[in-house]
Amino acid sequence: MPPVLLLLTGAPASGKSRLAARLAAELAWPLLSRDRIRELLWDALPSEGDARGASSDAAWRLFYSLTEDLLFNGSNVVAESSLHFRRSVNELQPVLSRATTAHIHLDCDRAIRVERYAARVAGRHPCFNDSALAQRYREEPDRWVYFEEPPALDVPLLRLNTSTGEDRLEQALAFVRTFG
């Protein structure tokens, strides 16, 4: 039986990281977070030149590569990131071929995401430049519209709305447990 990939997506500040960590702990599966990979790269790279600027692209490559490697070795994986609804379809194909995939996409009202994004600025890693992005998010609420829809991956999909803050862990677990 192939390993299970739980892909958790949604726009920034929709609640992905929190739900992914809880799911990974409950399922005892490794968690791959593209944001965490970027933070580690940022901290390891020299601050001079363009090395840190390249951390975003490198984080994407590592995210997909590490996910594929874990699946190849038979591990179930929780993989969490905002994914562009068009571009990521092709980027994910090598990963999807290695697993049975369950996709959870988090929906959240834009105005609530803007509030959440601004509220988390103080506690976030500097690689995200969140204070500047929070201001842009307020001014351009449709800035990340391409993350609002899930990529069309032809895998089972559960959409959960996180706008109310209601706990969605049990719904997510019930969905994932049908795959393995």
Explain this structure:
This protein is of the alpha/beta class and 180 residues long. The protein has one domain (4-109, 146-177): Rossmann fold (3-Layer(aba) Sandwich). It is 44% helix and 15% strand. It has seven helices and five strands. A five-stranded parallel β-sheet has the order 2-3-1-4-5, with helices on both faces. Helix 2 (34-44) packs across helix 3 and helix 3 packs parallel to helix 4. It starts with a strand and ends with a helix. The mean pLDDT is 91.
Annotate the secondary structure layout.
Elements: E1 4-10, H1 16-27, E2 31-33, H2 34-44, H3 55-72, E3 77-80, H4 87-96, E4 100-107, H5 110-119, H6 130-139, E5 157-161, H7 169-177
Parallel strand pairs: 1-3, 1-4, 2-3, 4-5
Helix pairs in contact: 2-3, 3-4, 5-6
Pfam families: AAA_33 (PF13671)
InterPro entries: P-loop_NTPase (IPR027417)
Protein name: Kinase
What descriptors fit this protein?
Rossmann fold; 180 residues; 5-stranded parallel β-sheet; 5 strands; P-loop_NTPase; single chain
